[in-house]
User: Fold this.
Amino acid sequence: MPLKQFGTMPGGEPVWIAELKAGGVAAEIISYGATVHKLSAPGRGGKLADVVLGRDALEGYLNSGTPAASVIGRVANRISGHSFSLNGKRHVLDANEKKNTLHGGRGNYAHKNFAVTDATGELVRMVLRDRGEGGFPGEITVEVCYSLLEDGTLLMEYTAIPTVDTPINLTNHIYFNLAGQGSGPIYGQELSINANYYTPSDSRNIPTGEVFSVKKTPYDLRKPRNLGEAIRALEKAGGIHNGFDINFVLKGDGWRKIAEASDAGSGRAMEVYTDLPGVQLYVGNHIKEGIAGKNGAAYGPHSGFCLETQFFPDSIHNPHFPGGIAFANELFTTATAYKFSTK
Assistant:
C-alpha cells in the first residue's frame, strides 16, 4: 500500500498518510481523524494550489482541531441539552458546548486515529471502532473511503454498522479556500446552494424546529453570490455568529448536485454532490486570528468555508426533521463528493 508514516500518537501508535492522484487532482489523507491533509486542484493554466486549510504536522492537529478537514461523528453538529431519549431510554452525553453536545463530544472522530485497511493510490479506506465514548449507546464500526476520480472528483463514502439503534450524522468539516489555503479571506469567492429553505437557530445555534424560506433573506444563495457581500448582508440583517453557520434544507433527494463555488482570480470551480437532506454552511467565523496553517500561512476568521453535508442538527429532538437514526445490525451508508474544474 502506498503509505508513509505522518507521525506518532502520544501512546506510540503510528499515524499514516496516503497519497491519491487522479484527474489532475492530488490529495493526502492522514489516518488521524481520517483528515484531508492536502487537496491540490488545478486553476487557470493548470496551476495547482492546495485548497483546504490544515496544519503542517501531526502536533498541530493534536493540539487544536480547528481548522482541520476531519471526519465528524458519531453525531456531527449539535444535540441540545446534551441528552436524548431513544427506545424508551435516556442517554446523557458530554456537555462540551455550554449545555449542548457538539460534534459528538469527547468521542468526536476528528480526534481518533483510524486504521487503514486499503490504499491503492486512487483510494484509501479507513476504519474506526466507535465504542460509545461520550455517552452514545452501543458500538459502531465506521468505514470511510476516499476516492479520486478521473473527472477531478474527491468522493467520500461512509458506511456504519451499529450494535444498537443510535443517532448518527457523519460529515467532514473540510475548510475550502479555492484561491489556495493561506491566501486570505474568502470574500472574493462565489457560492450557490440549491435550497429554498433553511432551519433557523437560536443564540446557542440550536435549531428552533421551524423551517423558513430563504426568499428575501441573507440566506438566499440559490444564485451565485459573492461571499464577502453575503457575509456583510447577514451582519447588516442582525446576524449574531460573525457570518454563516446555518443548515440549509436541500432540494430533491437521492444523489444530486447541491452547491457550486468558484474563485474568479484562479479560475477554480467546485461542485458539491450528496445524498443527504441538509448542508451546514460555515465560513470560519470563529477561527482565531493568526492561527498557524500550512507552509507558513496564518489563518483568521473567514479564511475558509465549509459545506458540511448532513442530517439536520438536533434531529433527535425534532421528529419532523429527516433521518439521522441507524438501526441495530443494519448497514448505514451515505456519500458526498467535491468535483473540481476550471472556468
In short: The chain has one domain: 3-342. The longest helix spans residues 227-236.
